[in-house]
Structure formats: C-alpha cells, structure tokens
Write a structure and sequence with these properties.
The complex is a heterodimer of chains A (247) and B (509). Chain A is α/β, with parallel strands linked by helices. Chain A contains 8 helices and 10 strands. Chain B folds into 2 domains: 251 residues, no CATH class; 248 residues, no CATH class. The chains are: A alpha/beta (247), B mainly alpha (509). The structure holds adenosine-5'-triphosphate and magnesium ion (MG). Adenosine-5'-triphosphate binds next to α1 of chain A.
Chain lengths: 247, 509
C-alpha cells in the first residue's frame, strides 16, 4: 500500500467538503479520482501531498504520516490543478531549481532537467521566460517539473488540462511506466475515456464521500451495467443515485 | 451602468473583508491608527514649526505643498503604469462586453477618487485641524474642497496618461508621464534645494493648489482654469478606443511584467549569474538567488527604490522651509532612516500579491521552506542596505565631511535589518494585502516602519543626543552594534522558525 487515506474529513468553515473518505493506492497501480465539480477531489489531493491539514483522519504515504513526517516528499511528484509558476524565471531555470529542491546534485539536476524538457517537448523554450508561454506549454513545464526526480509516487490533479494530444500521450505513458516500476499514481480527471484505458482502479467521489470504488468493471457492475457499457454511463448513474439518496 | 460597474469594483476590492468579521475589525483598527499617526506627526510638526522661523502658517504651507505634490505625483505615477485601475476580471469580462469606453472610464474615475479620498482625506483633515487649531473651523471647508479637487485632478491625470497610450503609443505616453511627474515635483525640488521660487511659480498648478489649500483664496481662478483644461481634455480623450491599452493595474502597480522590463534594468551580469548558480550552490544559496532574481526581474526593486527616493526628496523639503537650517543633516539622515523600511515593505506587498501563490512548489519538496523564508529576509536586507546606503551617500555628497559616518551607517543597517525581518514576518503570517492599493497594504507598510523605528531607538537616541562624533566612545558604539546584531538574530530565529508553518498549509487566495 503506497497511499492510504482513512476516514478523511476537511471543512473550510462552511460545512465539511470531504466527509469520511477512505481509499488506498497499491504499488503498481494507477488510481483514478473521479467525481462531479466541487466533489472534493482537489481538496483530497492537497491533503495527500501535505498542502492541507486534514481535520480528522489519517493519511499515510509510503508508510509515513502526512503531513508531519515530511520525508515522503522526496518520493513525490505533484502537479496541481492550476499550477502557479514563477513567471520571472526561464523554463531552464525553473526546471533546474526544481531538481535542486528535490535534492538532486547539481550535475544530476541539469541532466534530468534537460531530459524531462526533451520528454515534454519544451527544450526549444529553455531560454524563455515562463511569463511568455502559452497555457499548454506551461502545463508541460509544470508536468516536467513534477517528474524531474523520477518520483515513485505521482499525484496529478487534472493533468491533461490544456495539453495537446501528443503531450497527453507522453503523460499517459509516463503514468503507466511509473506504475510498472512499482510506483503509484493518483490522478484526478474528468476524462473518463482515458480513465478506462489508463487506470487500474478508480474511486468516484460525490459530496466528499466515496460512492463507488474498485476496478473499472467493478464500478460498472456497481452501477448495474454490463461489461460493454462505458464508464461515462456508470459515472452518471452512480452520481445521480447518490444525489437521490442524500437529497 | 456606471453604478453597476462601480459596485462590482468595490466588492472586488473589499472582497477579502467579506470573508470574516475579524478582518473588518483589523482593517478599521489600522485605518484609525493611520489617522492617528498622521495627526501625531502634525502635532510634532506644529511644535517644531512654531519654534522655528516659518511658524505655524509656514508649516501648514509646506504640509499642503507636500500633500498636493504626493497626490498629483501618485496620479502621474499611476498614469505611467496604465492609469486605469482595472481588475483582471474587468479586463476579461467587462472590456469584452458591449460597455462604452467612457462609461467604463467614468466608473473607474469614481473608484479612484473614492479610494484616494478614503485613504487621505480624513487623515489630512486631522493634520490640518491640528495645525490650525483653534482656527480650524475656518480652514476645514476650503481645505476639504481643495483636497477633493486635488484628488480629482490626480485621478484624471492618471486616466489621461493611461488613455493616451492608445493614441500616442506606450513609450510616448510613459515619457509624458515622467515629464508630468517632473513638473509636479518641481516646486518641492526647488524648495529642497533651497532655491527661491520665481514669481511665476505661483501659477504652477501644484503651487497654486497648495496655496489654496493653505487658505490663500487668490489662487482660485488659476486652479479653476487648470481643472477646466483637464476636464476638457478628459472629455475629448475618453471617447478614444483605449481598451487594448488597459492592463490589470491594481495588481501590478508596483511591478513590471518580466517581459516588459527594459533590458538595461535587468542588472545584466550579477543577477543572471547568480541564478545561473542555482545549479551549483547549496539550498540556501539557491533560494537567495531565486529571491534576488525575482525582485530584480519583476521590477518591484525599481519601483520601491523610486518611491523611497521620491519620499526622501519630498521630505527633505520640510526642514528647509520650516527653518531648521541649524541641523538639516540630521533631518536628512532621519528621513533616509525613517523611510528605509518602506523598501522591504513594498517588496513584501509584491511578494504577497504575486509570489505567495508560487510557494506550493517549495512546500511540496522536502524541507526547503525554512531556507525559503530565511533567504527572503536576507534578500530584502541586501536590497535595502544597498539602496539606503546609496541614498545616504547621495545626500552626503553635498556635505564637506560626514562626521557621524559610523553611527549613521549603524542606524541605516539597523533600520534595514529590522525592517526586512518585520516585513517578512507580517507578509508571511497574514494575507491582507491582496493588491498593492488595498487597505491591508497599509498594515504591511506601517508595521515594519513603526516596528523598526522602535527597535532602533537606542541608536537613534545616541545619534540625536550626542553633539559631536568624538563624544561617542568606541565602547558605546560596540555596545550598539552588539544590540543591533543580537536583536536581529533573535527576530531572525522567530521568523525562520514560525514563518514556514504559515506557508506549509498552503491555500489558494
Ligand atoms: N479554500 C477554500 N475555502 C472554502 N471552500 C473551499 C476551498 N477550497 C475548496 N472549497 C470548497 O470545497 C468543495 C470541494 O472543492 P474541490 O476543489 O475539492 O472540488 P473538485 O472535486 O476538485 O472540483 P472540480 O472538479 O471543479 O475541480 C467545493 O464546494 C469548494 O467550494
Ligand atoms: Mg478540482
């Protein structure tokens, strides 16, 4: 078990937005975090990476308590929902900086920065200020920065945001490879077609609770659908059903 | 439509206040404190003024001149930055809606006038009452009216310059802005340099307004003429299609987008080299280089330095006119020293507006937050020491000798050090300065200024009380050094140990 979330609660002062959420991500797994807008995906993800302190519940990442034992951060790659980047740095400077922050040695940091820049096709922008980049190019840079230390654990919040098909492909291959190497990937997204092909298991959130969890076919069964149906149909059935129950 | 736009603007501006009653309370407290501080300064000026040659009316005249200059100076300064105080949401949603240019412009004019009045009218009226008491009732009505006129003229100047961007281009418009600013500060510069102003200066708009504000009714026609000219120009230019020239000024007023930074201001060698070292040095060095790079590339350094120089200039006029000719050097030093913490305060405001949201990538990578916060204050200190030193050197150029060099340097260093640490402390632990022109920014400015003045008090006392430099014994000087260093070290410990805690639990604004 690489990521373990148990009975997570979070309240911003207007009533809980995550209400007793539990799920796990095993080694070798790409785990999808799905749910309608405002379901609490981003809040959950921020708790997992240690940017928000849970009101209640326990989170363990690679066996360490989050957020108090910060050593798990060395294993982590995180891509926020709307990454805010230092606009006054060039792409190269930012990637180098991230490499150093992740604890790489100077030489290593430079080599890896060049590698990930090439991987995400931003090496041509190396000398440009982030301020001047297009939205998708920024997302590529942020993604490249997230994986600069070849992290064992990837936590990605809507990673495909603004990426063109080519970059989406790179991102997906990277997620699969991380899982295959024994790591774990937690990815929040609304692209259900991708989830079907990419994720081993998924958790569907609705109003801060897990309303379905398991492999894709388990989720289809849970929605009362057969193997040939799409995740989209299952998602809509399940979310509508949960809304009906909670009023 | 104007009212609709205006109310949306006001709601956005006070947005963070709506979140909690506590922030309302703290803002009101600080507003009152601000008014109180201005009143106290006026009282101080009154006592000094009545004992010096100029007397109370002299002090009033200087105060009027300084306030009018600052007001119109702010107007021209905003003008060089684009003039129209638009929020990002306005650029994206209002300007793309079928809203006529002059409607949008008028709503912004009302907003600027409201804002400037809110900040300055009550406090200035308090100052004027203090200075003219017991005849204050006779002064106040004219003063209030003149004041509003000055504010209106400032806002219109800022708009005219901003809109002119769309007509004559950005460069020409900026140049015009700088020219206007030069014109605005001319009377104060003459005053500071001790040059008697020629008779036609009475027709200079700033001088005329200042005289009117000080109760000289004969300047009314001149002022009316200027106002009429401005209104006419405004009426013509507000029909221009200026939407493409509008930028979200409210956020960036104290910064420059990195792309637009002129190349020659990027401090070529030094800083690009330092960030080049990011790959080589240790973590602390990397973070230090990061801060310095940001400060120099986003341009907050230049704005801060300019504001500092401007204020020093304006203020060195006060002792000249009120006739403290006997110890102007002390007054000038105290001006540089008093305003020194302003520079880190401005840097802190910009940090809160533009850089706080980037701290996520520090928080999620290991334990770098401590070095981030520590080097943040170090970078402020570096910049502040360099600039206050330069300003001091500039002022000392005229003097034949610099007798108090050691004590002065220590004072400047103390103010820089305390100011930097306090600025980091306040900006990291609170998030009220949501834009450079917000009420919360006042807190970011007042806290380090008052705090470092208090902490530097021992040095100030020695500087003021000792008549000659050779009386200050080396032992006393060493003692002061020890005090400054150990107090700074203590503050540093507090900032670096509790600062990261505020940043760790990152939340988007
Ligand atoms: N800082 C905050 N302060 C107050 N409420 C917040 C804050 N952050 C999130 N919320 C609330 O928490 C709830 C969950 O938000 P969250 O961002 O986690 O949703 P999400 O599942 O990521 O949605 P989306 O699909 O739109 O990204 C929402 O109702 C949101 O309004
Ligand atoms: Mg989200």
């Amino acid at each position: 078990m690489i990521i373990e979330v148990r009975d997570l609660w979070k309240d911003f002062g207007e009533g809980p937005v995550v209400r007793g959420l539990s799920f796990t991500v095993e080694a070798g797994e790409v785990h999808g975090l799905l749910g309608p807008n405002g379901a609490g995906k981003t809040t959950t993800v921020k708790c997992v990476v240690g940017l928000l302190r849970p009101d209640r519940g326990a989170i363990r990442v690679a066996g360490r308590e989050v957020p108090d034992d910060w050593t798990y951060k060395e294993l982590l790659g995180y891509l926020p929902e709307n990454p805010s980047l230092p606009e006054y740095l060039t792409v190269g400077e930012f990637l180098l900086l991230m490499g150093r922050l992740k604890g790489l040695e100077p030489r290593e940091a430079r080599d890896r920065a060049e590698e990930v820049a090439a991987l995400f096709g931003v090496e041509a922008h190396w000398e440009r200020l982030i301020h001047d980049l297009s939205k998708g190019t920024r997302q590529r840079v942020a993604f490249a920065a997230a994986v600069i230390n070849s992290p064992k654990i990837l936590v990605l919040d809507e990673p495909f945001n603004g990426l063109d098909p080519e970059a989406q492909r790179v991102a997906k291959v990277l997620m699969r490879e991380t899982a295959k190497a024994g790591g774990a990937v937690l990815v929040s997204t609304h692209l259900l077609d991708s989830v079907e092909r990419l994720c081993d298991r998924a958790t569907i959130l609705s109003s801060g609770r897990a309303v379905a969890s398991g492999t894709i076919s388990e989720i289809l069964r849970r929605a009362g659908l057969d193997e040939g149906s799409t995740l989209e149909e299952a998602f809509i059935n399940i979310v509508r059903g949960s809304r009906g129950r909670t009023g | 439509m104007i009212r609709l736009l205006l109310s949306a603007k006001v709601k956005q501006y006070f947005g963070h206040v709506r979140r909690s009653p506590r922030s309302v309370f703290s803002l009101v407290t600080f507003y009152l404190l601000w008014t109180f501080v201005v009143g106290a300064l006026a009282l101080f000026l009154r006592f000094l003024g009545s004992s010096a040659l100029g007397g109370v009316s002299g002090a009033l005249e200087v105060l009027s001149l300084v306030t009018v200059t600052s007001m119109l100076g702010i107007g021209a300064f905003l003008g060089t930055r684009g003039g129209v105080t638009a929020f990002p949401y306005e650029v994206e949603f209002v300007l793309t809606s079928p809203v006529r240019p002059h409607v949008f412009l008028l709503s912004d004019l009302a907003f600027q006038v409201m804002l400037l009045s809110l900040y300055s009218v009550p406090s200035s009226l308090v100052a004027i009452s203090v200075l003219t008491y017991p005849r204050h009732l006779a002064y106040l009505p004219t003063a209030a009216l003149t004041y509003l006129t000055a504010i209106l003229m400032a806002a219109m100047t800022s708009h005219l310059l901003g809109v002119s961007r769309a007509v004559v281009g950005e460069r020409a418009s900026r140049a015009m802005g700088w020219a206007v600013m030069g014109l605005v500060v001319l009377p104060v510069v003459l005053l500071a340099a001790g040059i008697d102003s020629p008779p036609w200066m009475a027709y200079h708009p700033v001088q005329a307004l200042a005289l009117l504000l000080a109760g000289d009714a004969s300047r009314l026609p001149v002022v009316s003429l200027y106002l009429a000219l401005l209104v006419a120009a405004y009426a013509v230019l507000s029909r221009a299609r200026f939407y493409t020239a509008v930028s979200p000024l409210l956020m960036t007023v104290l910064m420059e987008p990195p792309r637009r930074m002129p190349r020659y201001l990027r401090i070529p060698g030094v800083l690009s080299a330092s960030i080049g070292l990011v790959g080589r040095g240790g973590l602390w060095w990397t973070m230090y280089a990061l801060h310095l790079t940001r400060i120099s590339r986003e341009g907050s350094l230049w704005t801060g330095a300019m504001v500092l120089a401007f204020l020093t200039l304006v203020n060195s006029a006060i002792p000249r006119l009120t006739g403290f000719g006997s110890f102007p050097r002390l007054a000038e030093l105290s001006m540089v020293a008093m305003y020194t913490p302003l520079l880190p305060a401005l840097l802190a405001i910009n940090w809160n507006v533009s850089e706080r949201r980037n701290t996520w990538y520090i928080s999620v990578t290991g334990d770098a937050l401590r070095s981030y916060v520590g080097t943040l204050s170090l970078s402020y200190l570096t910049v502040t020491v360099v600039f206050s030193g330069l300003l001091y050197a500039l002022i000392s150029l005229g003097a034949e000798e610099v007798p108090f060099l050691l004590v002065d340097s220590l004072l400047l260093f103390a103010m820089s050090s305390f100011g930097s640490l306090l600025s980091v402390a306040i900006s990291v632990s609170s998030r009220v300065a949501t834009s450079p022109l917000s009420l919360g920014s006042l807190l970011y400015v007042l806290f380090p200024m008052l705090g470092s003045a208090l902490l530097s008090l021992p040095v100030v006392v020695v500087r003021v009380l000792y008549p000659a430099p050779d009386v200050v014994s080396p032992v006393l000087l060493a003692g002061l050094c020890v005090y400054v260093v150990s107090a700074s070290a203590l503050l540093w410990r507090v900032v670096t140990s509790s600062g990261p805690r505020y940043l760790r639990e990152f939340q988007e604004p």
